[in-house]
Amino acid sequence: EPEVTQTPSHQVTQMGQEVILRCVPISNHLYFYWYRQILGQKVEFLVSFYNNEISEKSEIFDDQFSVERPDGSNFTLKIRSTKLEDSAMYFCASSRWTGEVQYFGPGTRLTVT
Amino acid sequence: EDQVTQSPEALRLQEGESSSLNCSYTVSGLRGLFWYRQDPGKGPEFLFTLYSAGEEKEKERLKATLTKKESFLHITAPKPEDSATYLCAVQGTGNQFYFGTGTSLTVIP
What we know:
The complex is a heterodimer of chains A (113) and B (109). Chain A is mostly beta strands and 113 residues long. Chain A has no helices and eleven strands. Chain A is globular and about 35 Å long. Chain B is built from no helices and eleven strands. The termini of chain B are far apart. The relative contact order of chain B is 0.34. The model of chain B has no long low-confidence stretch (mean pLDDT 95). The chains are: A mainly beta (113), B mainly beta (109).
């Protein structure tokens, strides 16, 4: 069964450093998403991506964040200058079309020290 | 503002003791309500999609129902392996899913 994969599973970085989180969405899906979950809190939407551009973003997704689909399979989230409050689980998701089920990856745990 | 509220926050059941989890929502133009299961340190795992009031979906010991204001996830004769956090999410007119904080279910053998 196709699934969303994410790497790395755990990333530790120092405050102010840049990090790139990687995702491989399900191959025939057209919409891609990033969500985050701070420990003990709800899953929060960051951004959706379709046809090589951002289709929607939340207030959390400020200028420190960017997304890219560098090739036909990968989808990345970049945080330019990490802050302590960026520590969270980051989930990538994909769906065939908007309005359909979003399938989530296993997540990347980002720890900013 | 689109919102999702889940109750109870935590639920402990004896094995075989049936119960229901609640998801109340406020959303502009509901396009879908989604139930997920989340195990500790893992990503949400899809369970059900409900699109219109009156709709019901069933899978093994789980049954999801939808009204115009809320959804229920009924768990019949639960087993210890059903222990997890159950998340409800809604999608309105945009692309994003709005998640509730979840119900943490513990089933005691």
